[in-house]
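Need residues for this backbone.
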């Protein structure tokens, strides 16, 4: 498929070829769901911890006599039914991260890119940088490329790591930068607008294309 390349002034320049093997696939919702959940699970710190009955501080003496009171027999005050007692099956520190199959992860990224291309929320913009590293200079470009009402949860896919453009965008809470080599399914899927640099679009064709 072909897409128009937009200049930093918001004008159409030329066409760029987007591979159908990357941007024209049927959307696989299941594998997208697995990719997003995999990223969220890998972010979990897993430090939640509770004390069980054997770990709670307290006496082992019975709270009252076993017989003669008319009440249910009790072992000790560390039992879970007492206030301050142990927690039954409570969380312990653990590692929630797991590996996702490489082919499934690649398919998820291609499905998201195809979804954005089909929904017309993906735009190819000519390569630009912000030499000054100032937020206002970056916003001047974004205002030309994106309508103000759509400038929310925007993802910019870069071809090469650009420290100055990232510096200019770090004060914009709704703007995220991704490298074409290290896409994140969560940010890409929930981005309402996806801006792909022209060189990054060509790199995506090669990186995720059929080999």
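Answer:
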């Amino acid at each position: 498929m072909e897409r128009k390349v937009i200049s930093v002034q918001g004008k159409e320049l030329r066409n760029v070829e987007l591979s159908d093997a990357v941007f024209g696939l049927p959307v696989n919702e299941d594998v997208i769901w697995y990719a997003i959940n995999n990223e969220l699970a890998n972010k979990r710190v897993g430090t939640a911890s509770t004390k069980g009955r054997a770990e709670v501080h307290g006496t082992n003496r019975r709270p009252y006599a076993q017989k003669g009171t008319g009440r249910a027999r009790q072992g000790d005050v560390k039992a879970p039914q007492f206030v301050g007692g142990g927690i039954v099956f409570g969380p312990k520190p653990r590692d929630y991260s797991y590996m996702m199959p490489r082919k499934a992860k690649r398919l998820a990224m291609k499905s998201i890119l195809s979804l954005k291309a089909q929904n017309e929320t993906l735009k190819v913009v000519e390569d630009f940088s912000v030499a000054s590293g100032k937020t206002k200079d970056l916003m001047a470009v974004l205002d030309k490329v994106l309508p103000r009402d759509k400038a929310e949860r925007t993802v910019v896919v870069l071809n090469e790591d650009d420290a100055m453009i990232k510096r200019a965008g770090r004060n914009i809470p709704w703007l995220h930068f991704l490298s074409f080599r290290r896409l994140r399914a969560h940010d890409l899927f929930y981005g309402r607008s996806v801006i792909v640099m022209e060189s990054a679009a060509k790199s995506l064709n090669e990186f995720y294309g059929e080999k």
